[in-house]
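Interim report to the steering committee. The following record documents the input for Membrane protein implicated in regulation of membrane protease activity (143 residues).
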Amino acid sequence: MNDIDAWAWWLVGAAALGIPLVVTAMPEFGMLAVGAVAAAVVAALGLGVVVQVLVFLAVSVALIAVVRPIAARHSRQRPQLATGVDALKGKQAVVLERVDGSGGRIKLAGEVWSARSLDTGRAYEAGQEVDVVEIEGATAIVI
């Protein structure tokens, strides 16, 4: 196998590693593919097979050791931007109809919501501002 063939085979290997990356969505295959591309570069420079394999292993292992923990840490983080009902928690609302432990109506984020008081003994009269602490179904729990 001459030097030109070696780099071509490394690129074929990189492309072959891209298939399971797409099918399984396992980023490790992508890191191995990058290692194969690095080995193709080394092969194109005319270095021997042993150096090519060592570069492939070094780059692949380095990427897996460095990138994988960073990606895992980012995947466990909650999104910075709250959306849906999560975005409504902590917002202020205006009472439209008396809100107590059994129900009522509030205006929250420009929409009319059913609401009930977190403290069943507490009531809020029309016009008062309340804070939303939770959303249960289509009902806002307020204090």
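The chain has a mean pLDDT of 92. The committee is asked to note this result when reviewing the revised timeline.
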